[in-house]
């Protein structure tokens, strides 16, 4: 089961990334002149649209869905020792997710990678003529994910660099640098974690209704995450960013296994 999950994640990511290179379908999310836009294929390919149901209601909440399915499978087991091991795996994976994507004694590790590879905090402004201008703003606003506008932070927009600004404000973001694919990281980790959690169920002579529900729920979510890995690998991030996300996802799963 674990080998099949690893093979599926690796194969889908490889072929999806190869397709994105050959047909130039991916969006460089680290480029501030592209990242604020919806994927150029979004108008013709439903799954390339950041506003799709898959992205908004599933991928954006991926760790919540994964945790719910994982804990359901965990609580339907009868081996208390294995339950404790499962909770340790989940806690270790959650800690890795937090440190890499949310907070690491300040900025997350992913944010630190962007900054160490030339990233900066920017606020894109799209004029009435659809011309895009990129304005640099203090790093603090990206790290705190604070929305800014001429009304809320007038002292920023009085600077000489903002003389051409005619936007309404917004939420600055880190751009340029190496933007590790958080989706690839999290989805790879989730698939491997869920597959490992339900693996012991297949060695049981029979399942209770609760166990059957847990296995079916986990299998369904694994299939959704594999599909999401495919859409991410085809339409988003550079190949290097997807590879680094995949490596960190697999590494985080490996760490959870030895915890």
From TrEMBL:
Transmembrane segments: 210-236
Sorted UniProt keywords: Endoplasmic reticulum, Hydrolase, Lipid metabolism, Membrane, Transmembrane, Transmembrane helix
Glycoprotein is among the record's keywords: no
Residues annotated as signal peptide: none
Subcellular location field: Endoplasmic reticulum membrane
One GO molecular-function entry: coenzyme A diphosphatase activity
Any one Gene Ontology cellular component term annotated for this protein: endoplasmic reticulum membrane
GO biological process: lipid droplet organization; lipid storage; phospholipid biosynthetic process
Keyword Endoplasmic reticulum: yes
Its membrane topology: Multi-pass membrane protein
Protein name (record): Fat storage-inducing transmembrane protein
Organism (species): Favolaschia claudopus
């Amino acid at each position: 089961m674990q080998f099949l999950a690893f093979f599926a994640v690796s194969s889908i990511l490889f072929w999806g990334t190869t397709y994105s290179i050959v047909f130039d379908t991916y969006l460089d999310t680290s480029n501030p002149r592209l990242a604020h836009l919806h994927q150029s294929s979004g108008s013709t390919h439903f799954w390339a649209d950041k506003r799709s149901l898959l992205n908004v209601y599933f991928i954006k909440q991926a760790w919540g869905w994964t945790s719910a399915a994982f804990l359901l499978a965990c609580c339907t087991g009868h081996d208390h020792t294995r339950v404790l091991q499962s909770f340790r795996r989940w806690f270790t994976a959650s800690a890795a997710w937090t440190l890499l994507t949310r907070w690491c004694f300040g900025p997350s590790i992913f944010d630190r990678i962007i900054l160490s590879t030339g990233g900066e905090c920017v606020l894109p402004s799209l004029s009435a003529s659809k011309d895009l201008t990129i304005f640099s703003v203090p790093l603090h606003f990206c790290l705190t994910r604070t929305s800014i506008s001429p009304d809320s932070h007038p002292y920023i927009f009085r600077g000489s660099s903002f003389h051409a600004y005619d936007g309404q404000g917004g939420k600055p973001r880190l751009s340029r640098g190496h933007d590790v694919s958080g989706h690839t990281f999290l989805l790879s980790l989730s698939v491997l974690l869920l597959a490992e959690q339900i693996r012991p169920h297949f060695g049981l002579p029979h399942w209770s209704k609760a166990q059957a529900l847990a296995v079916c729920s986990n299998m369904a979510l694994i299939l959704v995450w594999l599909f999401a890995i495919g859409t991410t690998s085809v339409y988003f991030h550079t190949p290097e960013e997807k590879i680094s996300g995949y490596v960190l996802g697999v590494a985080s799963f490996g760490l959870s296994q030895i915890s």
